[in-house]
Amino acid sequence: MKTQKSSSSMSLQTLLPLNSTSNHHHFNTSFTQLNSILISSKTRKSTNNDKITPSSHFLCTSMSMQPKLQTPTPTPKTTTKSTMDSLSVFERAVIGMCAGASAGAFTYFTLHPLDTIKTKLQTKGASQIYKNTLDAIVKTFQTKGVSSFYSGISAVIVGSTFSSALLFGTCEFGKSFLSNFEAFPSLLVPPTASLMGSVVSSAVMVPKELITQRMQAGVKGKSWEILAQILKRDGLLGLYTGYSATLLRNLPAGVLSYSSFEWLKTAILIKKEKKKLTPLESVCCGALAGAISASLTTPLDVVKTRMMTQFHGVMVVNNNYGVSEIVKQILMEEGLVGLTRGMGARVVHSACFSAIGYFAFETARLAILDHYLKHKNHQQSNTPSVP
């Protein structure tokens, strides 16, 4: 028996080079070497699979995509991540719609006073009424006090809730859908998705802005009364006065703002080698993206505002003027300066809007996503497994 045991030890020592003849030491040394082999193998595999390129970093920072890393053994902590990765395009779109609705209502309400001043400065004849932005603020306050800054707020709340839901929901859908195609350049995903979102959301945004801006410009009556006047005079199509100008403004503005935010965010994350922005970084990226978009698209916004606010008293006149006619009229009456009316107020408004809007959307999205994943994981844990 002793001879057999000695022979076994020598065989084991031949296979694994051990420095001691103790069986206990043989086992410990063998286990240590085997563990080292497994760890080094795992490290090499992790290094190869978890390498994040700029493209995967961009997908990680998008609102819809997560980096495709190696799925570890499920644990209570990693189950949530696995469930998040498995969300369908439809689920991501619905979460985006819910977050966009809440963020849109909050942001539009917060910044409505700035939008009111911007509209007054861009209305025809404003150069004879207001000297500058400060003068417009003072004269607006002198009319009805603080409430004068919130003219048309009811239409804003209702319209912005639905338009923001459509905008972000469509963006989420577009980003999730387009990211499934490897041949589609990841750099073009945000502008393409925002283009889709702007077209869809404008169907709700145009009637909302039409009613709101006429009230801001001085038309008397409540939101529903303005709506009734438009429907009685021009029918349903009257609600889409300025639709072409709105698209002309919203498409480039939306693409510039949304894409700038995504690209700035991606650049910061790649430079700092992390996967999530701090709240301050998110606000700064949003503000800069909004300022860039607003400054470049102010002439389009002036044309759109003129088309929506052509009225005399309470009745709209010359609403058959197209974009080209409005541009010619502005150039004849005020020159190139007329196309920059309200730029200061608009840049400030857009910078604040984008900073608050993107921050509010991301906060709402993460809160809704966390609640949804917990609910989904709870359902999965309570579902009996099929033998």
TrEMBL record:
Keywords (A to Z) from UniProt: Membrane, Repeat, Transmembrane, Transmembrane helix, Transport
Cell location: Membrane
Gene3D superfamilies: Mitochondrial carrier domain (1.50.40.10)
GO cellular component: mitochondrial inner membrane
Keyword Membrane in record: yes
A Pfam family assignment: Mito_carr
Entry keyword Iron: no
Chain positions of Solcar repeats: 91-177, 185-267, 277-367
Family named by the database record: Belongs to the mitochondrial carrier (TC 2.A.29) family.
The protein's name in its UniProt record: Protein MITOFERRINLIKE 1, chloroplastic-like
UniProt source species: Spinacia oleracea (Spinach)
Gene name of the record: LOC110783037
